[in-house]
Every structure is written in C-alpha cells, then in structure tokens.
Amino acid sequence: MDLLKRAEILLKATRDLLEKQENSYYVLDLLHETVFYDGVDCDGNCLKDDIGYWLDELEDQTNCKEWGENMEILLMAVILIALAIININICNIQMSIDDIVRELRRRKEKE
User: How far apart are alpha carbons 10 and 49 in whole angstroms?
Assistant: First the structure.
C-alpha cells in the first residue's frame, strides 16, 4: 500500500480515537478503546503497533528526497499521532493537518 494512503488511514483512525476522548466526560484508556479501520475494530494498542510498522516502512525507504514537502508534513502528523496515543496533553492537541502545513510554510518563509 502507498505510504501516503496508509498514513491517511492511520491519521483518520487516530482522529476517531481522539474524538472518542473529546466526546467523553471521563478520561478514557485510549490503548483499550476501539476504532474501526482496515475493515475491523482495532484498539489503541493495535493502532500504535500499526503506526510503528508504518514508521519502520518509512524508515526503510531509501530515497526520501522524492517526498519533498510531504515528508515534513507526514513526520509532523506522526509526531501528533504518537503524542495522542501515549496520552500526553490529549486535551491540548488541537493542531490540524492544515495548521501543520501553515506552520511548515511559515518556517520555510523565514529561512
């Protein structure tokens, strides 16, 4: 599967998991909450493992230069996923992919 498409699937699943927390009055154990992707219900542990496999596959890519700006955006997205999965500041993670893109472009303009 295309790495960008896989990243999109994992980001959407992570968003769905975070929305469960956002819509709950209680602090949820996100590693045991389930989300639906790849045709099955997976819990946060499964999602975390899938993100790990995706990162391993990404690392195995020998020619990352062809990704260009998309690589930076994907890496920022992966960082957000990792923070969300390990439940650090879950209530404060408000950055969207659009915010990430704007921030990266702003930084490039400063250079």
Answer: 11
pLDDT at residue 34 greater than cutoff 50: yes
Query: Phi, psi (5° rounding) for residue 94?
Result: -120, -5
Identity (one letter) of the amino acid at 82?
A: A
pTM above 0.90, yes or no: no
Segment 69-100, tens digit of pLDDT: 566 667 777 777 776 665 544 444 555 556 66
Q: What is the mean pLDDT of residues 49-67?
A: 71
Domain assignments of the chain as residue spans, ordered by start: 3-110
Could you write out the DSSP letters of every residue in 53-108? HHHHHHHH-S-GGGGTHHHHHHHHHHHHHHHHHTTSSGGG----HHHHHHHHHHHH
Cα distances (Å, whole numbers) of residue 4 to 8, 22, 31, 108: 6, 26, 24, 22
